[in-house]
Structures are given as C-alpha cells and as structure tokens.
Specification:
By secondary structure, the chain is mostly helical. It is built from six helices and no strands. The protein starts with 15 loop residues before the first helix and ends in a 22-residue tail after the last helix.
Length: 188
C-alpha cells in the first residue's frame, strides 16, 4: 500500500505500479459506493446518501493526491533532491486522504448498521458494519492502517457485498422485509 501512495520514489521505485494500484483501489471503492446509493434510492436511508456523498469526495481526493504526489515527488526529486519541503507536502496530502478514507469506511459501517432491517440479512449487516467501523478506525489512525486496518477491511468488503447483493429490491417481485411494530408507549 505504501508504494501505491506515492512513496515508491523514496524507496527507489518509479511509482507507476503504485499509481496503477491506487487507481484500481479507487475504482473498486467507487463501485462499492453504488451499493450505498442503492440503500438511499431503494429504502430511503439518509445514511446511505451521506455515505455515498462523503465516500465520493474521499475517494476522489485519494486518487488526486496519489497522482499529484507521484508526479510532484518525481519532478522535485529530479531537480532539488528528495528531502525538500515540497516532497513533505505530498506526504501530508496522502495522510489527510487516508484519514478521510478511514472516516468513509466508518460511515460505511454505520450505514450497514442503520439499514440492517432492509437488507434481509440483519446479522450479516451488523457484522459488516462492525468490521467496517473497526477497520475504518484502524485506517484513520494511520499507524494501525499499515499493520492491520486493510486486513480487517477485506472481510468487511466481502461480507458487505454479500449483504448488498442479497438485499431485496422494492417492486422487483421479491418480498420486502417486514419491520416489527414497536410496542405502545405507556400503560395499556
């Protein structure tokens, strides 16, 4: 992941492979966001809409910062050496984009937990939500992202994808999930 974030130039690599990995990671995250757009469109989940909007901004910033860091670091390192103040701006931009991605993963988890009653797999939605929240917390803390945050997110994405694929689509002829009525307030 470090090579994908533009640090490959510091370690002797050209970083083009890292840019390709960053682009593939961004595209896969963009595709996953459409599931949260579906939670908003099909079930009216405001958390799904917020997750989609925030995630879109975070992913675009991550991709832009990866591209800018790669080209800025390569250009600056060729002319002034790798340890200039301009190269540190690329590092700061990457760290900020990672924190924003971590918050987006936490929002993914909250959206799964909030919309669990619509998915048909309530236990799976809660499990995916908890994994997303834990993995997003690890990614937000930067240091733990390198040692396990993305390993926690891998099963979260798998389980979240299963939950979103199994969610019934209203009006498609599938039975919609039944929500139990809440008990009346006060003594009867």
């Amino acid at each position: 992941m470090m090579f994908g974030l533009g640090f490959g130039r510091f370690l002797g690599s050209e970083g083009v492979l890292g840019l390709a990995l960053s682009a593939a990671f961004s595209v896969s995250l963009l595709l996953a966001l459409f599931g949260f757009h579906g939670l908003w469109r099909n079930y009216g989940s405001a958390m799904g809409a917020a997750t989609f909007a925030y995630g879109l901004i975070a992913i675009i910033l991550f991709l832009v910062s990866s591209v800018l860091t790669l080209f800025a670091v390569q250009t600056i390192c060729e002319f002034w050496g790798c340890y200039t103040i301009f190269a540190s701006w690329g590092l700061i931009l990457i760290i900020v984009s990672l924190v924003l991605l971590g918050v987006a993963f936490i929002l993914d988890g909250v959206a799964f937990i909030v919309a669990r009653r619509f998915t048909g797999l309530q236990g799976g939605a809660v499990a995916a939500g908890v994994l997303f929240i834990v993995g997003g917390s690890f990614v937000t803390s930067i240091l733990l992202a390198l040692f396990g945050g993305f390993f926690v997110l891998a099963p979260a994405f798998i389980l979240g994808g299963i939950v979103l694929l199994r969610a019934p689509v209203p009006g498609a002829g599938w039975p919609t999930p039944v929500v139990a009525p809440s008990p009346p307030f006060g003594p009867s």
